[in-house]
UniProtKB/TrEMBL annotation:
PANTHER family tied to this protein: PADR-FAMILY TRANSCRIPTIONAL REGULATOR, TRANSCRIPTIONAL REGULATOR RV3488
Transcription regulator PadR N-terminal domain boundaries: 15-86
Protein name per UniProt: PadR family transcriptional regulator
InterPro entries per UniProt: Metal_resp_DNA-bind_regulator, Tscrpt_reg_PadR_N, WH-like_DNA-bd_sf, WH_DNA-bd_sf
Length: 110
């Protein structure tokens, strides 16, 4: 199975989860996703997701000056984003449990 296809369906949730405990700027969020095990996530996908989540009212932004380059736009979860993370997390857990059951029932457990 192609991991990039799976990522398309869960990238919003992954980005919201990464921002749950700490704000971040684009490259920092990308790095944290990759460190968490999503090595195949693309730069453009993450930046597009951040723009979409912001436009949907799930994130807020603020700019921090940088001494080593251009200013950085930081993203943070707002109340709507935290609510969406909770809802999407429950949906994901339910879906993952269903898939685990299907795989276990057919002798395909990890």
């Amino acid at each position: 199975m192609d991991t990039t296809q799976l990522l398309k369906g869960v990238l919003d949730l992954a980005v919201l989860a990464v921002l749950r405990d700490a704000d971040g700027y684009g490259y920092d969020i990308l790095r944290r996703l990759r460190e968490a095990g999503l090595e195949e996530v693309g730069d453009a996908s993450v930046y597009g997701t951040l723009r979409r989540l912001f436009a949907a009212g799930l994130l807020t932004t603020y700019v921090v000056p940088s001494e080593s380059g251009p200013h950085r736009k930081y993203y943070s979860l707002n109340a709507a984003g935290r609510d969406q993370l909770t809802r999407s997390g429950k949906l994901w857990r339910s879906f993952a449990t269903t898939m685990d059951t299907l795989l276990d029932d057919r002798g395909m457990a990890a």
